[in-house]
Write a structure and sequence with these properties.
mainly beta, five-stranded antiparallel beta sheet, six-stranded antiparallel beta sheet, 54% strand, SH3 type barrels
């Protein structure tokens, strides 16, 4: 059992018979009345984010989760197949548990979160940033735009579409943020 004082981002709790990850929390002590904790919780099974308020000191069940390194192997009709980096066991995982399949590349190192009691995979976390080569993009011409912060679409080796600055050309390697598919920087 954990209390609201133990809350931290990424913590997995059992709430209303379901598992939730704490995405964000804030302790609030108003001038009048009792303190409370405002949270954003992500449902593990549906991926839906809800807002909830807990009274300060309330006890919740903390679900034990383990984060294990895996390597992405391939995709087929059974799902996405990953290999445990420590035991070399292969695990098929359905697409709904993977946050961003468009940036998943063969051989990529990922982190699979397991429910420790049932040994079931809960979610797959990609690295924060990945580097891919641009396979196609239209050439950017200086002076085409009225603003200095212009973007154009580019396709990377996995087939994902990313919005990049005008100076990016085919063959360039770019760093991409996996949480929102945004361009970070050009890699040399």
């Amino acid at each position: 059992m954990a209390t609201t004082a133990d809350f931290r981002n990424g913590m997995c709790i059992e709430y209303n018979g379901q598992l939730f990850f704490i995405v964000q929390f804030q302790h609030v002590k108003p001038g009048k009345g009792a303190a409370f904790v405002r949270t954003k919780l992500k449902n593990v099974s549906t991926g839906k984010v809800i807002e909830n308020t807990f009274n300060a000191g309330v006890k919740v069940n903390e679900a034990r989760v383990e984060r294990r390194p895996h390597q992405f192997l391939y995709k087929d009709d059974m799902g996405y197949h990953f290999m445990n980096a420590e035991t070399f066991d292969q695990v098929p995982i359905e697409e709904g548990l993977i946050g961003n399949t468009a940036l998943l590349n063969e051989g990529m190192e990922v982190e699979v979160v397991y429910h420790a009691d049932t040994e079931t995979p809960l979610m797959v976390n990609l690295p924060t940033n990945v580097v891919f080569e641009v396979t196609y993009t239209e050439p950017g011409v200086r002076g085409d735009t009225s603003s200095t912060n212009s973007l154009k679409p580019a396709t990377v080796t996995t087939g994902a579409q990313i919005m990049v600055p005008l100076f990016i050309n085919e063959g360039d390697k770019i760093k991409i943020n996996t949480s929102d598919n945004s361009y970070v920087e050009r890699v040399k």
